Amino acid sequence: MSSVIDGKAVAAAVLEECRTETAELKAQGITPGLAVVLVGDDPASHVYVSSKVKTCGELGLHSRKIVLPATATQDEVLAIVRELNADPAIHGILVQSPPPKHIDEDAVVRTLDPRKDVDGFHPENVAKLVLEDPTGFVPCTPAGCMRLLAAAGVKTAGAEAVVIGRSMIVGKPMALLLMAKGADATVTVAHSRSRDLPAICRRADIIIAAVGRPEMVKADWVKEGAVVIDVGINRVDDPSTKKGYRLVGDVAYAEVAPKCSAITPVPGGVGPMTIALLIKNTLQAARQIG
Ligand code: NAD
């Protein structure tokens, strides 16, 4: 019988910690501030950005939402980033991904002041993650997965962990966190060129699926008693719903869940953690910058 890891509840607990930390910082005269920059009119990005700003408000953080038109030039985006780098009321800056195609996202990330890069994508923060330097910012989604494992009481030390996906946003940092001192897992990273993925997964005590393919991980890929963290968020057509689609993960939940000791659902698993860890990172930035 598997236990369902409730991401909403764990995220709520992290946000309560953030509320306390925000009050402590304010008592020291520091109001933590997050700026969220959105370029273009992608409806999903608007929803993400609004919920980040709303969460800041609820916890007492200062926030700024900057919306640029889809026609904004690279120079205009970089000018905003530089302005925010110099703004003492702002400790964290996030440029919502994906920007329009004509914007060089890598150049935007490299322009960020690494001390304010609360997404943890700047090369300086990537290096700090590799070096296990706690002053760096850990990307929010894999950091959220680590919190979920901890909250579920999963012992990572010595465990065989398989991370499916090698993106800079999820897969790679996830692998680094699992192999870091303290977590101490034995990590395999699988990706689109891996041979016999089902066999690789069957070895795993812990599977982290971060692929972007609906319900790819099947029951016969999963060892009895394994822990499964499903990062995937995929829209699949479903005419029976009001929106005409529903969200599914990268794991075939209905058939996999009965084999697991613990599993995250989609939605309500990893998703809510990402925003909670973003606020955590903003508070870390506020403490470090002052
Ligand atoms: P990505 O497209 O950047 O990377 C996908 C990875 O999967 C690649 O490394 C690729 O090698 C690997 N892959 C592709 N096909 C594969 C296959 N058949 N077998 C094995 N590996 C394969 O995606 P990403 O940004 O890492 O996101 C992955 C998923 O996680 C997406 O569904 C995304 O929506 C979701 N996501 C969720 C959150 C959250 O907050 N819950 C945050 C970020 C991403």
What is the overall pLDDT average? 97
By secondary-structure content and strand pairing, the structural class works out as alpha/beta
Oligomeric assembly? single chain
Shape by Cα distribution: globular
Would you identify the regions where 5 or more consecutive residues have pLDDT less than 50?
none
- Written as H for each helix and E for each strand, in order along the chain, the element string is EHEHEHEHHHEHEHEEEEHEH
**Straight-line N-to-C gap:** 48 Å
Number of DSSP helical runs: 10
Percent in strands: 15-25%
Integer-rounded radius of gyration: 19 Å
Q: What's the arrangement of strands in the largest beta sheet?
A: 1-11-8-7-5-6
What summary fits the major beta sheet? 6 strands, parallel
Number of strands: 11
Bound molecules: nicotinamide-adenine-dinucleotide
Proportion in helices: 40-55%
